[in-house]
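Title: Comparing notes on inverse folding

I've been comparing how different people in this forum approach sequence design from structure. To keep things fair, I'm posting one structure and asking everyone to reply with a full sequence. Here's the target:
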């Protein structure tokens, strides 16, 4: 996987997002036919804009998430986030828990962690990995407006959660919600990708970044592409195609969504506008400084006094 492809990988998220699903079922090579916890405060009725933005991951993305990201993401951030959780002096909240890529291992280590995600399909798969007594530790919630009674020593939002929050107001609401759920002295840690300028200007042609199996003898491929970025809105339009074997032949489903990209000083100003206090922005998951070849922003914030 190269740097261009890395900029296109979505994370598991508890947040609003825009997305479009396009489905094609291929019954044969010649046949193309269209196919188709902790307590949370109740929100009576989301506004039309919130309802539009809160489209969850499609079921087929949740279904194949573990197979794909075991190859394309595991080993990049796992050790960092799990070690950070383990060293927290109190309970932990994971925003964007997804299918439990990090959460399940955290529970195996005995970490007192809870998690939220906007996608019911992701939460269902996460719960399937957990012991029955742990399943109430994860629940469906929108990270820009969730509320719980619990407070945490650490809140984390791994794998580019904020890249799926388009508007500055929503970004600030997420940061402030994280702050409000921290214990005194607590920290909020999240990461974002460093934009690849060539990719933003040119986009990415269709590229296969995963070719493996989703079950024994059942092939799965993922094909990613992007359009040239909307530089005024700082968004990239991404398409991910999943092609896989089923009993009745090969099937393909496509998902299109937008990712918001950020620059270093924009992140600094965004945190400064929130209730949080910026402690550091690292350039990798080993705590290194930002450098010209950095691919990650790893942002560490503290509970501010404002």
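Reply #1:
Here's my take.
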């Amino acid at each position: 996987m190269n740097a261009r492809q890395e900029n296109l990988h979505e994370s598991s998220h508890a947040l609003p997002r825009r997305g479009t699903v396009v489905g094609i079922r291929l019954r044969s090579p010649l046949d193309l036919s269209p196919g188709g916890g902790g307590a949370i405060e109740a929100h009576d009725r989301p506004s039309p804009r919130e309802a539009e933005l809160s489209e969850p991951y499609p079921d087929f993305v949740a279904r194949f998430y573990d197979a794909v990201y075991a190859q394309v993401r595991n080993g990049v951030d796992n050790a960092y986030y799990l070690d950070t959780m383990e060293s927290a002096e109190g309970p932990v909240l994971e925003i964007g828990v997804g299918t439990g890529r990090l959460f399940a291992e955290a529970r195996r280590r005995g970490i007192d962690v809870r998690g939220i995600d906007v996608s019911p399909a992701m939460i269902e798969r996460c719960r399937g990995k957990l012991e029955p007594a742990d399943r109430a530790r994860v629940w469906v919630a929108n990270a820009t407006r969730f509320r719980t009674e619990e407070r945490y020593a650490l809140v984390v939002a791994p794998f580019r959660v904020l890249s799926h929050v388009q508007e500055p107001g929503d970004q600030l609401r997420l940061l402030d919600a994280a702050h409000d759920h921290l214990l005194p002295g607590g920290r909020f840690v999240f990461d974002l990708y460093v934009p690849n300028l060539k990719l933003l200007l040119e986009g990415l042609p269709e590229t296969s970044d995963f070719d493996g199996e989703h079950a024994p003898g059942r092939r799965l491929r993922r094909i990613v592409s992007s359009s040239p970025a909307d530089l005024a809105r700082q968004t990239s339009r991404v398409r991910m195609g999943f092609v896989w074997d089923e009993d009745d032949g090969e099937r393909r489903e496509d998902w299109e969504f937008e990712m918001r990209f950020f620059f270093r000083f924009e992140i600094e100003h965004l945190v400064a506008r929130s209730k949080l206090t910026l402690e550091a922005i690292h350039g990798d998951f080993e705590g290194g400084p930002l450098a010209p070849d950095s691919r990650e922003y790893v942002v560490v914030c503290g509970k501010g006094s404002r």
